[in-house]
Structures are given as structure tokens and as C-alpha cells.
Amino acid sequence: MALGAFAAHGLKTTLAPEKIEAVLGYKGELKDGVYKVVIGRTTKMGGHTVGKQMGVNTWAAFAGSDDKAIVDGDFAMLESELQPVLKALRGGGIDVVAIHNHMTDESPRIVFLHYWGVGPTEALAKTLRAALDRTKHEPPPAP
Average of pLDDT values for 3-27? Predict the structure, then answer.
């Protein structure tokens, strides 16, 4: 089931967003039963900087309970970060759904990886944190 349909099917999210925030270090937003965290990246196209507002981002959307949650998302990474991120996600039991590009002629090159996982919220967040640690994403803002 797609995360957007979660609330539409009468399912309730009871997970604790603060647990995800504590592990990832980034704050998100709870809306319509889905807790989503978005972390920006930057690259250049045609001499212009493009970033988070233009869709160059890593995101994770959680729904369910702390005992059994689903996470769906996208990693934006440098080509050199692809293998370490793959290993971290698969090592934590998160499935890779697709690997592709969204842009052409950007510098540095950005690869997008879509993923899906099921498990305890904290375990999923720890796996995502391990994958983030293998990238050069901007650090979370100071509290």
C-alpha cells in the first residue's frame, strides 16, 4: 500500500516522531498519518545551483506504529556514494526499489535511489542513519 493511501484506508499512525528525529538528527512533519523527513542536497545545472526546493533531496516517509512501521523514500547521492548507501540499506533489511537519474548534465552527478522497508521504527531509522553517514548530506541544523 502506498503511504499516501495509509490514512485513506482508515489506518492510524501511532509511531513517535521524536524517536525518528533522535536517530536521524533531522526534524520532519506529520501530515495525514505520514511522518516525512526531507534532507536537501545541492548540485549545479547550466551554471545555476539547484537543491532541496527543486527536488534534489533525500526523504523518508514513515507510517504505522513503533513496533511495525513502513518507510518509503528516496536517496539523492553522489555516484561515489551509491555502493556504500546500497550496502547500508540492504544490511539493515531495507529493499531498494529503483536507481536512476532525475537530471542530465548536472555537476556533481546525482543518483537517486528509491527504497521501501518494514520493521520497528527505530530499526528503520537506524538503517537510514547508517546510509546517511555514508554520504555528504548537509548536517542537521543546530537545535
Answer: 79
Number of residues written out for the chain:
143
Q: What is the pTM of this model?
A: 0.89
**C-alpha to C-alpha distances, 97 to 21, 35, 78, 88, nearest whole angstrom:** 24, 20, 18, 15
In whole angstroms, give the CA distance from residue 55 to residue 42: 10
In 3D, which of 85, 69, 68, 65 has the Cα closest to residue 136?
85
Summarised one tens digit per residue, pLDDT across range 52-61 is 888 889 999 9
Burial 30-48 (b: 16+ CB within 10 A, else e): eeebbbbbbbbbbbeeeee
